[in-house]
Amino acid sequence: MAGLGASELLIILTVVLLLFGSAKLPQLARSLGKSARILRTETQALHDDEPVDRPSAPPARPLRGAALPTEHDDVRQAR
């Protein structure tokens, strides 16, 4: 993403001012601040809920097409 210069920021602020009006801008900024604060606290809570000692590798899963044991395998092993 390209950096925004002073002229681009001025154009964006002018468009926002025209769209929302000067009376709505403080309410808009306040609601954006509240949303950012809620998002930050929720992501922090998710990080706090993670278990401390995680396994180093995921549990092994059977391979596709691998033969699963059947009841006949038990009979063959008993002989």
Low-confidence stretches: none
According to DSSP, the number of beta strands is 0
Query: Which structural class is indicated by helix and strand composition?
Result: mainly alpha
Distance between the termini: 70 Å
Biggest sheet, in brief? none
Query: What does the overall shape look like?
Result: elongated
What oligomeric state do the depicted chains represent?
A: single chain
Beta strand % = under 5%
Report mean pLDDT, rounded to a whole number.
78
Structural Rg: 29 Å
Helical segment count = 3
Main location: membrane
Function: Part of the twin-arginine translocation (Tat) system that transports large folded proteins containing a characteristic twin-arginine motif in their signal peptide across membranes. TatA could form the protein-conducting channel of the Tat system.
Family: Belongs to the TatA/E family.
Protein name: Sec-independent protein translocase protein TatA
Give an account of the 3D structure.
By secondary structure, this protein is an all-alpha fold. It has a domain at 24-49. 61% of the residues lie in helices and 0% in strands. It contains three helices and no strands. The longest helix has 25 residues, at 25-49. The chain is elongated and about 80 Å long. It starts with 5 loop residues before the first helix and ends with a helix. The relative contact order is 0.05. The mean pLDDT is 78.
Task: Give the topology.
Elements: H1 6-20, H2 25-49, H3 71-78
Keywords summarizing the entry:
transmembrane helix; 3 helices; 79 residues; 61% helix; transmembrane; elongated; TatA/B/E; mainly alpha
